[in-house]
Task: inverse folding
């Protein structure tokens, strides 16, 4: 009985964290949209001749370096899609943590959930910053890998089990990989959200049902 009460309490706390995270996600989305609108305005004000000269120069430079020119506008469009799916990704990440916490009886504190939530939010901030300098693939995958390693180290002490923390890191990478695959398609974001919500609902029922 006490275990069920603890699980229900953590589920409620996770819902609170997700709702609270909507504030920074909204601010990030507004920031990305403002950059996209600013770039579109600048493009409209720039003459075709300057666009042609600039594009030709970038093309020659990229060919000399053996690299493709960086498309900032495309990067931020993908960042926008990424942030749209962020609440579901956050929910799945916290649900996975709760699932392992319940199954393995690691008895994580609410502070642990807060730290993980902050890390999952910071991921998107780092993604936005890196999108200015590298292709979106690297801006997304690099912080995902680094965050998974950091949480592996952090949770290995809190969970008192390196195996459980490794399982969480692998699961988190799988969630990021699924999100990465889908964010390139706006229609698939809705599908990702629906599937994510169904998974969350089923998992909550399984963890809170009466034994």
Result:
């Amino acid at each position: 009985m006490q275990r069920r009460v603890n699980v229900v309490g953590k589920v409620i706390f996770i819902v609170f964290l997700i709702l609270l995270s909507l504030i920074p996600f909204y601010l990030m989305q507004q920031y990305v949209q403002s950059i996209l609108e600013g770039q579109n305005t600048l493009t409209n004000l720039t003459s075709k001749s300057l666009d042609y000269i600039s594009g030709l120069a970038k093309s020659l430079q990229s060919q000399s370096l053996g690299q493709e020119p960086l498309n900032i506008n495309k990067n931020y469009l993908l960042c926008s899609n990424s942030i749209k799916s962020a609440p579901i990704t956050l929910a799945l990440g916290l649900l996975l943590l709760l699932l392992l916490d319940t199954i393995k009886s690691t008895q994580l504190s609410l502070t642990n959930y807060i730290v993980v939530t902050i890390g999952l939010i910071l991921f998107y901030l780092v993604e936005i910053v890196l999108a200015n300098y590298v292709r979106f693939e690297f801006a997304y995958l690099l912080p995902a890998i680094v965050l998974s390693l950091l949480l592996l180290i952090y949770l290995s002490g809190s969970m008192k089990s390196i195996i459980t923390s490794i399982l969480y890191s692998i699961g988190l990478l799988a969630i990021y990989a699924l999100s990465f695959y889908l964010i390139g398609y706006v229609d698939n974001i809705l599908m990702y959200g629906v599937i994510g919500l169904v998974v969350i609902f089923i998992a909550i029922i399984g963890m809170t049902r009466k034994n």
About this structure: Helices lie at 2-45, 48-65, 72-84, 86-104, 110-130, 136-158, 162-182, 186-208. DSSP finds eight helices and no strands in the chain. The longest helix spans residues 2-45.
